[in-house]
Amino acid sequence: MYQDGHLLDEIVFYCSKSFIFQNALEEQVHLQFLKLMLTIVTSNQQISSGLIVGIEACFQIFANGQKMIETTSKAALTQMVNFVFSKMERKFKEDQILLQESIDLLKFLSQNVLFEKDKEINNLILKHRLLGLELVTSILNNAGTTLVTHETFHPIVQELCLGISHNSIATNPQLFELSFSVFLLLIRHFRHLLKLEIEVLLNTVFLQILEMGNSTYQQRLIVLQGLYKICEHPQTLMDIYFNYDVDFQMTSVYEKLMGITSRICQGRTEAKNSIFESKSDQKEQDKKLRNKALQVLEAITRSLVLFSKSDVKEEEKGDSPVVLGGKNVLDSITMTQTLSLSKTEDTISSDQLEKVANQKQVFTQGIKLFNSKPNRGMKFLIDNKFVQDDPESIAQFLRQTPQLSKHAIGDYIGDGDQYNIKVMRTFVDQMDFAGLDFVAALRLFLQAFRLPGEAQKIDRLVEKFADRYCEGNPTIFAKADTAYTLAFSVIMLNTDQHSSQIKHRMDVQAFIKNNRGINDEGDLPEAFLVAIFNEIQQNEIIMEDEGKIAEIAMGWGAVQSETKRMEQYKKEAVTIQKKSQMLISGKNRQVSAWKTANSKELIRPMFSLSTWAFMAAFSIQFEGSLDEETTVLCLSGFSNSIYLSCTYELETEKDAFVTSLAKLTNLSDVYSITDKNIKAIYTLVDIGAKMGEHMQKGWIHIIRSISQLDYLQQVVSDKVSPALAQFVQELQGQSGLKQIDQIFMSSVKLSGGSIVAFFRAVCEISLEEVGSQNAQKIPRSYLLQKIVEIAYYNMNRIRFEWSQIWRVLQPHFNTVALHQTQQIATFAVDALRQLGTKILEREELGHFSSQNEFLKSFEYIIKHTNSPTTRELIINSISQMITSRAGSIRSGWRSIFSVLLKAAQTDDKMQHQAFAIVQNIFKNNLEHLVSSNVFVDLVSCLAEFALLHGQGPQHDEQIMTAIQMLQSCTKSLVQRAEEESLVQLKRKPKSVASISTSQVMKASPQAPRINNLPQQAYLTEQGTISEEHFYLSWFPILSAFSRVINESDSVLVRTHTMETLFETFKSSGHLFEPIYWKAIQRNVISPIFDDLYETDPQSQEARAAVLILGLRLLVDLVSVHFDLLVSFTDFLEKSLDRMVLLMGNPDEKLASTGQICLNQFLSNNALKIAHLKERGFVMDRITNGFTQTFPQELVNIRIEPLEATGHLKFVLDWATERATKDTSLETIHFEQTVIKCVTHLEYVQSVRDFCLASETEPVICLLNASERDAILDSIYTSYSMARSFNHNMPLRHAIFRRGWVSQLPNLVRQESLSLQIYMTLLFSLIKHHPEGRYVELLTRESFDVLERCVQYSSDPKFQRELVSWSPTLMALFKQLSVIEWTTDHPLYQYLEQYFRYSIKLVFLEQPRLVIQEFMNRICDLLFKNEIRQ
What we know:
Strand order of the largest sheet: 1-3
Distance between the termini: 193 Å
Number of helices: 64
Shape: elongated
């Protein structure tokens, strides 16, 4: 008795015979058998060989039955097959027989169904294949762990790929769809095993069919549906890109898929029309294909987005079995993996990944270039280091790179260049023909490339083939020439036997005849030639003809008959099939293991590769379609693409997508907006709300669209379409406004860089709104208002970010505030006021200047605006900010003062308003200004107000008030110094620097703080102002006074300021260190007296009063602080220089002032000067005063030679030697000479007063010898020059004749006075320094003058001269009268002579009394014997 399993096998085998060999049985019998098989298979009993027999019988029942029996048999088979594999998955570990049953079943379906060898597919075979494919689809769609992972199934799965390549060229839609479904399921479950097969089937079969002009509409639609399945699954899509487009050994499948799909979507590939199809049908089919291609592209972008957002995880869910016989088999396929595949992880770093992807793109570019221009392409590949530049490497590259065109390879190795010839020879040498018969070797040779068209190229190639063949097979031919000739003969025979254009074909005898005598004058064996002939006749040598493949894509849109189209398709399909099967079964090709894409960085190069294809497809489809589904797909594609561009920082791509999407809104032509444009608007706004962080320059288009939406609400009317009207209504509603406002409100979430880009875009479009670029455009302020809002939103950002924002906003407000429309300008200024008030709420540290930077906008606007309204608004805004935020203003004061000054320079009204604000600031905020380090700016501002031009009492009062305010500042500073001095006196001795701020402030509560440096005391230990406080508080005020004095046009202002300045010096100078006076001298006082060097009389006259006052005040200052200033000699030197210089001024009043001031200085400080250790600088200026005022020109003019003897000659020579200025009567300025004479005469007396300042011991006696001699020489020179002129009668007469004077000119007064002073000084010196040389000088000059007076007295015509010299005689005898005469007195020996002269001159009326006194004095001494011996 049989065991259960064997018995069931026998039953199944016996029953199956009837159905396998007898087809005409009744349906009831068929049904019973199906029931039997279903019962056996689904039972718990095991069968072995009977299973396959029974399944085969069920196939026969299905193929031969009617409709009802077909349905039943298909259902039964599906149940049995699914049960077998399901049972195997459940009990695989327990029962290995179940595994074998499943393997046998899958082999049966693969080998006996998919690989049917019939050339013609009849209806019976077709039904078998369809059913088999459906069953395989069902098995794979429900595959379990064992089927996917057990190695026994893997060879069967690989064989399935060959079956798919065979069936995929079928024109039957159902067969094609099922083949593609199986292919998708293989990708889903077995792609880690089928890397090569997937590449071949996708690249060579399905994508090729998609691009073929002769493929059917259903085929292309099915391929697109299948591609959609692949592309909508992120992991599958990324794996394909990673394993093919990033692998140099593989074809770039994703790139090709993108290119073909994009072309279809753009309508650039339309199939050939059949004459049986109407144009409307064709258009509808093309539309569906484009829409499906669009779905594929959108699915790609969606998958990339999903992959970029998070780790893609497969959903754990089972799939229901495929519904067999349905019309949507492909739709039921899913690419979601339910099982974990055996896979190789991606171990490449992100940087390497992107680098490899970019290199692959460059490699692909090089391949394309080679295929079109071989030599240039090879150079490109070598330059980019894809190939080494040597024949061996190039030849190997040509043979091992499948992407290269065979036609291009043929052209390259056939080129006549010597390097190309070397490559060709190496290329052929790498082929091994040893042991091959001649035709086989020739087939191998010709399949490596396509023969070029030129005879010389072919000749070189065939010649090398013959040589290489004979090298590997040396005994077949006598020499290589035989192989060379025979190769050409075989190639021609192949063309003769298989070309459709040849009618009369060659027979075997003709072939033999053509090849006689080619074997070194002998014949080849006839049997050998016959065998070659038969081989070629029966099996054509098929060369890789890209020309045929190229025809696939040609002829799009051409109308042809269905029969002709199908014939063309079959030819193309056979080529595809052969090529695909050859590639799949290729054994020599090295393929790397399948890798699973895990890195999100893959998306960057992947998206970059696809960018322009996406953009072109989405844009064209959107513009050319009114279908809502198409619109949604396009906008989704745009949204996804922008997201990817933002995420991976692809700025160019992002800008391009945003720009294109903005154009699709059609907001530039609001009356043409349709439903799809409205959807595009919503998409663009949504993108701005969600992707703002990465938008950067893309904000321009989004903000412009938002602006246009506002414009749309203003211009829309009743004439627009209902859709547009409804859209506007939505915009005006809460929901529409909220969506747009969300963009602006969300700006607070943007990073520092992104917010700057956002503001930059808003400002740019705001300028477009207000029409600053277009004067004819009605201005709008929508975005201007939004700028204020978003600025408020972002006010709390960190200081650095806000400063970057303000760099964008500031020029915008500056521009808009100058708008010709007052309303716009007013809004801009008011917006600045609002922002300024808000900014001033933030505390600013001492060394920052953000407030100043912000308020500079007001400064810029008031400087450039021509609108009085705008200026007044700015002034009011400044006033309001001061009123409300004065306590928090720090660096902002600088800009405030600048704004007030610029406003004051416009007109009187603005000037008064601005000054009123300054007064208010000074009154209420002085201490705060000082603590804010803007005291200098306040002082500068007050100085500028004092210099403003204007007229009227109010203007004068304003200027005086400004000066008074400056003076108040100095008084405050002095007060503080006094109060701090009290603090120092009251506390115990300790370092001044240790005084705390609280102590100082407590001691001087009303004194303003000069700066914010609490560690720096106001006074030093010596009681002077500290250096920091001097330069930060005092010096600016002093400089301001100096500026007003120099630059003001009002003499009253200048003089008043001058008095104020020097009063400040006098009252506060003791607080200044000597070093400070250097700065005061250089920067404050020197500029005041710069005009001393002016030579223009009008300029001197205009400033004479100021200079005179200034010099007098300077002398007072020096006198008051002489002891302080003497340690800083430069100050005194410069001051004395000014006085001396002024004495030589051509203006009489100024010259006199210089002399008076110098006289005042000398008289006030005579003894102080005398007791100085270093007084040379003073003495030098005293002698320079003589030089400056000497009328030297009167000495150097010679009309006639002067004759003189004795002492007169000595005097004249003295004068001539010291008169260095050559001149003539024609060039002399007599009026200036007269002024010099007057000034000089006064100066000589001033020097006398200085030298005789002290009664006890005159100053001249306190000087050293050189200093005394210098003064004496200067006075004697004055005397000698005057006497020289008085003696020069020709010159005096010449001057008189010119009419310059009313009487004969003379310098008798100068001559007599100078000599008188000279002798007086000598008497004083003899008294205190009884040196012989002084006695000699005195007696020489005194006897000379006495002698002259005696002569004058004897001649009545010299009465005038005698009268002029009488004071000199009186002074001389008076000095002689007061001498304490003793015999040892230096002058005692000359006493007799003096007495005798007195006797001669006593009769003179004027000096009589003095002479008599002298004579009485001498008589008393002589006759009373009072002269001690």
